[in-house]
Design brief:
Elements lengths: L5 E4 L3 H12 L4 E5 L10 H12 L14 E5 L12 E4 L5 H11 L8 E4 L6 H4 L5 H6 E6 L8 E5 L6 H14 L3 E5 L7 H18 L4 H8 L11 H7 L3 H12 L5 H5 L4 H8 L12 E6 L2 E7 L6 E3 L6 H16 L3 H19 L8 H11 L6 H8 L1 H10 L6 H6 L5 E4 L2 E5 L5 E3 L9 H7 L4 E2 L3 E7 L2 E6 L8 H17 L2 E4 L12 H9 L3 H19 L5 E3 L3 E4 L1 H7 L3 E5 L2 E4 L13 H11 L8 H12 L7 H7 L7 E3 L5 H14 L16 H16 L5 H15 L11 H16 L2 H13 L6
Parallel strand pairs: 1-2, 1-4, 2-3, 4-5, 5-6, 7-8, 17-18, 18-19, 19-21, 20-22, 21-23
Antiparallel strand pairs: 6-7, 9-10, 10-11, 12-13, 13-14, 15-16, 16-17
The structure holds 1,4-dihydronicotinamide adenine dinucleotide.
Length: about 775
């Protein structure tokens, strides 16, 4: 059983996003909504939603091409065409009557094997299926996606005792492998897991900020980064979600939560916030919320609200001593810090963690299910039980006791050994019965962290590590900040290739972190540039080229396994792999020209080679060169692995793993399959023919025109010309043949010329300071 065709009913915020994501997974999907009164186009709502999504940023579609998989329709004319759908997701307004009416109409249409699921955030499943047949009940579940459905990784799945277990298993599998979600099983309780705890946390964080007289900036800085919460903190998050939505969520919880639920005691209506909403401060979708942008002359100034008066004034971000101190002392130090901010951290965490501890097993049978829901649904780095362990379960319980608060029974149980512990290299979690059980890893889920728990690196220096992934495969991991690349990385890569060649069968390039690599360490580069150590710069370029060439021609397969950013040198690393198994959410690009450089670690060479053999492109030497020139010259970054294939950063044969948790295992399996198939390294391209100066002139004219049109800046022209020289083959002509080393030498020469240019140095400095490109 699987899903070959799907439908989504309700083309609003969630429904259209879910339909797009089903299309991202390659599943054809019908998107239906109602027929508006008097509409000429009866499917206008769904059609309009698809059109809007093609323009939305961040994009719901992983490639514009997959939009074709979504067919718009309406619930009056097209319901019958759902009869061959395997999965029908209902995402209409949050109104039990509207949903019930729709299910009654769906019941006679759907095929017996089909699954119908609701995206409801608050309505209990038992209410939704009231009055439906047993067969419908067996086919029904809740699949709760988070907004936006492509990017938020959590999928909460709720089923009833009468739901067909095989159908639940099928949807879990589709959610996991094909949609790439972290699927968490929830009980049929209000708000399920993430919103139940999340709403409580938001309310507590707001209450305490008001009671302790903190500014929104202070509060956000404390509940943000130090607690592993996105830097929007709590007020920034509410701005994002919508201030007006909060009372609605609260009301719905208050009508369904158990009578003694702790949320009832902390729930408050704050007059200042009420007035903000009434005045139209609904958050980022409106004119602002707790923060707003005010135009002041040509500039926009960020302002924030005073929680006592409701007045706005320019936002200031104070340096908070408690937060600074935490860098050394950790979360335990923050909650113990003798300051109002330390007190704030304590009060927010004490209440939120106690609440979470009181909800197991009511909302989930496991603490790791709760932690995962908060990590994936609210983008917390650590779930509540992981946070409790960071403070220390006993420390937490003792202080609660000392301050006269109740200690939840589960926290009491955790006092001796914590919520999690490692036994024989395997992570165990505390269960409500007091025992510890291994945290299950689904088959095909592998983290480097799992390897690290049981082994030591084969090789290691200050910037990288080599691990034994088992079955004869090594794993090369960059360990610097944002996985930036430096000479140490290249050095260890060389050594890793030698060791793998001697004792192992294959190598995977991978790290657990958010990003594969942001490229060369610009800070380091700038340092060397500032002291004019040009030889050292050239050595760094040449060292990288050599390491990547050695990887390409190594006698064993090398598989790149990116997730997140793979930019500049990180992208070049992937270009030299025998195969890539990329997370769907990989953002790959050669961005060197943005900082006034040209790709110098073989990026120009590999992109040329790829485009020249692409049978889809027209003949002649110019089209492939022009295409590479355009992609590199404009520093294009693919916004998904699918787009990376379209731009040539990935090959059509490279794999895409939708679930981030499965990237490493998939990459390892791919490497082993290549070994099995009798891997032989590629042979160097025999003759590369490039047209030389005439082609360079052609590209120059194109850029000059862009400059005239005001699209290209003066330094863009200089950089584009250096890039054109490399891509056209320098002083060669079409009758001569070049080899890879010749193109690498051209890359090096162009790089060295650009890196000395004051306008390039200005770009690098600006990028380091502001994280934005300088358009000089
Ligand atoms: P929305 O208001 O953006 O969209 C609802 C859509 O349903 C509208 O396009 C409306 O025309 C359509 N609709 C209404 N009655 C219909 C009917 N009888 N047949 C077909 N279409 C009908 O709402 P949104 O935000 O997309 O929410 C949809 C569901 O997802 C709700 O159950 C909500 O609780 C849930 N949800 C919402 C989240 C969010 O962040 N907005 C997050 C997770 C779940």
């Amino acid at each position: 059983m699987t899903v070959k065709k799907a439908a989504v009913i309700g083309a609003g915020v969630m429904g259209s996003g879910i339909a797009a994501h089903l299309a991202n997974a390659g599943i054809p999907v019908m998107l239906l909504d109602i027929v508006p009164d008097g509409a000429a186009d009866r499917s206008t709502l769904a059609r309009g939603a698809i059109q809007r999504m093609l323009k939305t940023d961040p994009a719901p579609f992983m490639s514009k091409k997959v939009a074709r998989l979504v067919t718009p329709g309406n619930t009056e004319d097209d319901l019958q065409s759902l009869s061959d759908c395997d999965w029908i997701v209902e995402a209409v307004v949050e109104d039990p009557a509207v949903k019930a009416d729709l299910y009654a109409r769906l019941e006679p249409v759907i095929k017996p094997e089909a699954v119908v699921s609701s995206n409801t955030s608050t309505i209990p499943l038992s209410i939704l299926t009231r009055g439906r047949s047993d067969a419908f009940k067996a086919s029904f579940m809740v699949t709760h996606f988070f907004n936006p459905p492509r990017y938020m990784r959590l999928l909460e799945v709720v089923s009833a005792p009468e739901t067909d277990a095989a159908k639940v298993a099928m949807i879990r599998d589709v959610g996991d492998r094909r949609l790439g979600k972290g699927v968490v099983t929830c009980k049929d309780t209000p708000g399920f897991i993430a919103n139940r705890i999340g709403t409580f946390w938001i309310q507590v964080a707001i209450n305490e900020a008001i009671d302790l007289g903190l500014t929104v900036e202070q509060a956000d800085q404390i509940v943000g980064r130090p607690m592993g919460v996105p830097k929007t903190g709590v007020f920034g998050l509410v701005d994002l979600v919508g201030l007006d939505l909060m009372p609605k969520i609260a009301q719905s919880l208050l009508t369904t939560l158990p009578a003694n639920d702790a949320y009832r005691a902390i729930y408050r209506v704050d007059p200042v916030i009420e007035r903000l909403i009434a005045d139209g401060y609904t958050g980022r979708k409106g004119k602002g919320g707790f923060y707003r942008l005010e135009r002041s002359g040509p500039e926009k100034v960020k302002e924030s609200v005073d929680l006592r008066t409701g007045e706005f004034s320019p936002s200031t971000k104070p340096r908070i001593e408690a937060v600074e101190a935490t860098k050394a002392t950790g979360l335990a130090g923050l909650v113990a810090h003798d300051s109002v901010e330390g007190q704030y951290a304590w009060r927010v965490l004490a209440q939120t963690l106690s609440y979470a501890a009181g909800l197991v097993p009511e909302i989930s049978d496991t603490i790791h299910g709760v932690d995962e829901a908060m990590r994936l649904g609210y983008a917390w780095k650590w779930g509540p039980f992981e946070l409790a362990d960071m403070i220390g379960a006993d420390t937490l319980a003792a202080r609660l006791e000392a301050e006269g608060f109740a200690v939840p029974p589960l926290l009491e149980l955790a006092r001796a050994e914590g919520f999690y512990k490692t036994v024989d290299g395997i992570l165990h979690a505390l269960h409500p019965d007091g025992g510890y059980r291994p945290v299950p890893r689904a088959e095909g889920v592998l983290w480097l962290d799992d390897i690290k728990r049981t082994s030591k690196p084969l090789l290691k220096n200050g910037s990288a590590c080599l691990w034994d992934l088992g079955d004869g495969v090594t794993g090369f991991e960059v360990t610097t900040k944002m996985n930036a690349l430096d000479d140490q990385v290249m050095d260890l890569l060389g050594k890793s290739i030698a060791l793998t060649g001697r004792d192992y069968k294959a190598m995977v390039l991978y790290s657990d972190g958010t990003n594969f690599s942001v490229g060369a360490n610009l800070g380091l580069a700038l340092f060397v540039i500032n002291v004019a150590l040009w030889d050292q710069v050239e050595q760094l370029v040449e060292g990288g080229q050599k390491a990547y060439q050695a990887m390409k021609y190594a006698p064993f397969p090398v598989v790149g396994a990116p997730a997140g950013l793979a930019l500049g040198g990180g992208c070049e690393m992937l270009l030299h792999c025998d195969a890539v198994q990329a997370a769907g959410e990989s953002y790959i690009g050669l961005v060197e020209t943005g900082v006034g450089l040209v790709p110098g670690w073989g990026g120009c060479k590999e992109m040329l080679l790829r485009h020249m053999v692409n049978p889809k492109r027209p003949n002649g030497p110019m089209p492939p060169i022009q295409s590479v020139f355009e992609t590199l010259g404009t520093a294009k970054v693919a916004k998904s692995a699918m787009e990376a294939q379209e731009l040539g950063f990935l090959r059509p044969t490279d794999g895409i793993t939708m679930n981030r948790d499965r990237v490493l295992a998939d990459a390892k399996a791919r490497a082993l399959a290549m070994v099995q198939a009798g891997y032989t390294p590629p042979s160097p391209p025999e003759e590369i023919r490039l047209p030389g100066p005439t082609a360079r002139t052609g590209m120059k004219i194109a850029v000059d025109q862009m400059a005239l049109a005001g699209v290209a800046t003066p330094h863009d022209r200089v950089v584009a010309d250096a890039l054109a020289r490399v891509l056209s083959g320098g002083d060669t002509d079409i009758t001569e043949t070049l080899d890879e080393d010749a193109i690498l030498a051209l890359e090096r020469a162009a790089f060295m010329e650009m890196v000395r240019h004051p306008a390039t140095i200005a770009r690098i400095e600006h990028m380091l300071e502001t994280n934005k490109p300088l358009r000089n």
